[in-house]
Specification:
There is one protein chain. The protein has five helices and two strands, in the order H-H-H-E-E-H-H. The protein is mainly alpha-helical. The chain folds into two domains: 69 residues, Arc Repressor Mutant, subunit A; 39 residues. Keywords: DNA-binding, Transcription, Transcription regulation.
Amino acid sequence: MIELDVQSRKPIYEQLMDKFKELMINEVLLEHNQLPSIRLLAQELTINPNTIQKAYKQLESDGYIYTLPGKGNFVAPPKSIKNSLKEVKIRNELEKVLAEAMYIGIEKHEIHRLVKDISPLRKGGDS
């Protein structure tokens, strides 16, 4: 389910966070699904449990998951993600990518078509 690149310069906990976010966005992990326990995931991935704990804490801080004491970690409903800061960050990144795309010659209508193609993939998004 989760593969990490130990050769990458990106820290393992960030790779783990990205993988979980990807699974949530692609609706492999649905809201209120329980995440693997830290101990189990550490054994599966053969990484330090503290690394997983750090990823889970950051995901919880960012609003992607929530913890029920004694029960584990669960996927948070999409609306509970801290929108304001995250939205600003995503908008800034998107502006940079779009500016670069237009600079290298991708036409606006092609970008629009790509956005239209992506929209139906995400439930609850504006069309």
